[in-house]
Design a protein that fits this description.
2 domains, 24% strand, Ribosomal protein L2, domain 3, four-stranded antiparallel sheet, 274 residues, 4% helix, mainly beta, seven-stranded antiparallel sheet, OB fold (Dihydrolipoamide Acetyltransferase, E2P), 2 helices
Length: 274
């Protein structure tokens, strides 16, 4: 999907680069697949602020996404390509021949009216979902499961994809968007193609007010605070800061946070590039 430059009619539009929604269907979302979203404002159940810089924002409704694709060998027609306010990727509404409806993450190249399937003995078309062990090497996939039957958990955001590099009797080797290479069980499901909206990272919001619409409040730099408020605060003039830390005092920018004993470490063949 492309982006468009806005005419500089106002200061907020002068530097704005907006997403082009021309490929989206002009339809209202499917009401049976909507859920309300309750805003927390960054507060926990006792009212204490546990996450800073969250609050406000436009009212949103959650779309129920089918990450499991359990309706095997039942054809579905793509009824519409729609916007999802809670994710960077667009979604596609499927109408199954048995009357059921479901939302999926839309892959690049999927058109309204196309037919998609899930199962084992199906064609290798964009939008079809099947176990990784049945795909040929070199296939570009997204919506990848890490545990069979649990639903997709990898390569779900806009423009992302993984590439199937090799297969063994039990595992397949995937190269992830970060550059990491890891083994995944061949029984895990994945969808063919890359996620739509690859130009999402080229969007420029143009003004601070647009962040407020998204529920993001102004952020204060730690070096601009007093020592009582942040470990990097205080100092005379610009002589402040020190080693980058979080507000809790934990080192950032380089400190390794991954658990050495995590169960999946043996399946990571090559770590992501620094």
């Amino acid at each position: 999907m492309a982006v468009k430059k806005i005419k500089p009619l106002t200061p907020g539009q002068r530097s704005r680069v907006a997403p082009d929604f021309s490929i989206l269907s002009k339809k209202k979302p499917e009401r049976s697949l909507l859920l309300p979203v309750k805003k927390s404002g960054g507060r926990n159940n006792t009212g204490k602020m546990t996450m800073r810089y969250i609050g406000g924002g436009h009212k949103k409704r959650m779309r129920i996404i089918d990450f499991k694709r359990k309706k095997h060998n039942i054809p579905a027609i793509v009824h519409s390509i729609e916007y999802d306010p809670l994710r960077t990727a667009h979604i596609a509404l499927l109408h199954y021949v048995d009357g059921a409806k479901a939302y999926i993450i839309a892959p690049e190249g999927l058109k309204v009216g196309a037919k998609v399937l899930s199962g084992t003995d199906i064609t290798f078309d964009v939008g079809n979902a099947m176990p990784l062990k049945t795909m040929p090497t070199g296939t570009v996939v997204h919506n990848i499961e890490l545990h069979p039957g649990r639903g997709a958990s990898m390569a779900r955001s806009a423009g992302t994809y993984a590439r199937l590099l090799a297969k063994t009797e039990k595992y397949v080797t995937l190269k992830l968007p970060s550059g990491e290479m890891r083994e995944v069980l061949g029984e895990c499901m994945a969808t063919i193609g890359a996620v739509i909206n690859s130009d999402h990272n080229n969007v420029v919001i143009g003004k601070a007010g647009r962040n407020r619409w998204l529920g993001i409040r102004p952020r204060t730099r730690g070096v601009a605070m007093n020592p009582v408020d942040h470990p990097m605060g205080g100092g005379e003039g610009k002589a402040s800061g020190g080693h980058p830390r979080s507000v809790q005092g934990l080192y950032t920018k380089g400190k390794k946070t991954r658990n050495r004993n995590k169960y999946s470490k043996h399946h990571i063949l090559k770590r992501r590039q620094k």
